[in-house]
Amino acid sequence: QVQLVGSGGGLVQAGGSLRLSCAASGLTFNRYTMGWFRQAPGKEREFAAAITWGTGSTRYVDSVKGRFTISRDTAKNTVYLQMNSLKPEDTAVYYCAATLLGLSRWAEDYNYWGQGTQVTVSS
To answer: Cβ(120)–Cβ(90) under 8 Å?
Structure first.
């Protein structure tokens, strides 16, 4: 049974940092790409970043490049999203997800989803 458990969200002032974690189990890890998506109130779910479990290749949406870093710890089966220089527009529920379809930015390509963790950035 696949489980993705996201954590690390919270309230932070603009310019601050947070690190999200996604603990994964039940996957054949080297076949998967792990992604982070976010959904703000009244908006569609948006791709933020992804990383291939095997090689560590990454992809980011333009709006987070240079501020967010996705990484994985293969020993702990955990994916991280380090978020720096946070802006109010980064406020959203952040979801981790897993796909077999490479560095996809499309939510419909992801088979497994975590429960979401709230990130709120105050101005």
So the answer is: no
Predicted pLDDT of residue 118? 98
41 by DSSP, 3-state: which?
coil
- Each residue of 65-95: pLDDT tens digit? 999 999 999 999 999 999 999 999 999 999 9
Angle at 88 (CA atoms; ends 41, 57), nearest 5 degrees: 85
Contact partners, residue 6, CB within 8 Å, separation at least 6: 20, 21, 22, 94, 95, 96, 114, 115, 116, 117
Amino acid letter at 75? Answer: A
β-strands 10-13, 117-122 pairing: parallel
Annotate 82-122 with DSSP letters as a single string: EE-S--GGG-EEEEEEEESSSS---GGG--EE---EEEEEE
Q: pLDDT per residue over 19-53, tens digit each?
A: 999 999 998 888 999 999 999 999 999 999 999 99
